[in-house]
Amino acid sequence: QAVCVPKHVVFKKISRDKSVAVYMAKRDFVDHCDFVDPVDGVIVIDPAQLKGKKVYVMLSCTFRYGRQDMDVMGVAFRRDLFLVTRQVYPELQDKEKLTHTKIQKKLLKKLGDNAFPFFFEFPDNLPCSVALQPGPSDVGKKCAVEFEVKAFCAEHQDEKIDKQSSVRLSIRKIQFSPENSKVVPVTETTFEFLMSEKPLHIKLSLPKETFYHGEPVKVNVEITNSSSRNVKDISMSVEQVTNVVLYSNDKYVKSVAKEDTTDSVPSGTSLKKDYTLYPLLAYNKDRRGIALDGRLKHEDTNLASSTIVKDEVLKEVQGMLVSYKVVCVSVFYSEVSVELPFRLMHPKPEPGITGVCVCVCVCVCVCVDNLY
């Protein structure tokens, strides 16, 4: 459920026994590379329902690589990459020390004496939210890196959590494209063959290094065929490469956009042509193994963004690494291919856009309300 305060949408979820509720102003938290947005919100309790128990809030990052019902011999197909739990009630710190944002202050004022703030900071080495798309017949949890805020009441934090007295709210850690670099990606390869005295030269170039989700990828291809054989059936594609690096070194290579042509380059001639490719999730629905950006319940998402790994962070703790490349394949004596990597990401939002007006907010609340 979502509730409104002026110029904000606030997400709310309450436990089944109504002992504890979570209020959060957002569910997407941005990794800016040099820092990550902190996770903050407000917990509201019902002292009568608590019956003397304490209230805790937990932030977790989990890498799941198998369905829960596949757990065998006590070995779970999941791993907690990050887990921290804090006591919210009874208070261990003054409310003011845990109140870091204006929206927290407004919520505390609005919700009364039984409202308590919480605040977490992400460590530097956590991956962003990402998941492998299941096939149409797959059931249960998918292979994914997931983040969650959980509030619960218990005698102590290590005891088994009662589902009736707990709230779980999925959140996302996301990354926007860094500042546009002036690098223009180019690659060129010369192929020499025993059966031909002269070589085949292929050059690929892109207008920029980073493309945004939904944006067409325009590739310039230059082929100089000095050989004695014709080049034919030029095919262009965008390939998504997903390395599952945490528990094994599985690699998924999926073509997410492709154009097969009958273009040819006869012996002794050259070709210079632009090809346009559209790497969109809309063209890859229900394809098992496609990496997607993490999504909240029932929300649409997109192809996974390229992974940017910070210099000091081990790749092995990232769970899944996603990258993209343009591939040009043509038939010569046999198939020859040339690859050129690029980034696919979300643009950084324009500064100064911090909320929506009250009338729009009401509409958003109605839409968000349907997600729960």
TrEMBL record:
GO terms for biological process: G protein-coupled receptor internalization; nervous system development; signal transduction. Pfam families: Arrestin_C (PF02752), Arrestin_N (PF00339). SUPFAM superfamilies: E set domains. InterPro entries: Arrestin (IPR000698), Arrestin-like_C (IPR014752), Arrestin-like_N (IPR011021), Arrestin_C-like (IPR011022), Arrestin_N (IPR014753), Ig_E-set (IPR014756). One of its GO terms (molecular function) is G protein-coupled receptor binding. It comes from the Eukaryota. Residues 196-349 form the Arrestin C-terminal-like domain. One of its GO terms (cellular component) is photoreceptor inner segment. Belongs to the arrestin family. This is S-arrestin. The lineage of its organism: Eukaryota, Metazoa, Chordata, Craniata, Vertebrata.
